[in-house]
Amino acid sequence: MREHSRRIEHLQDELRSVRDERLSLLETLSGLHARRAELHFAWGRDEESRRQATLAGRTAAETEVRELRQRLGAAEDLIRSVLAERNEAAAEAEQSAPEQQERPGRSPWYRSRRTP
Length: 116
Hints:
This protein is mainly α and about 120 residues long. The chain has helices at about 1-95, 110-115.
């Protein structure tokens, strides 16, 4: 009977140590779950900040493109107005200038360059 009692005590001690080990492993597992959750939220914050930075960069690029297109449109309008004025001035000059029938290919100022 004594052997049986010792065997029971030994098994109870073993059961206690297994329960303690189980409790220790559950605490470790709980700590790992908490760490995983922290890492997950940190990853989410990093992804959100990257997304916002990308969005801000895209918005800045779109703004720059819009400004450059406006400047290009203004430059094209200026060129058109200068060309229109030049064409108008050339048309007025043709109408007001007397018809000169010089030799083809010669400048109207050809005679002014000749020396007597």
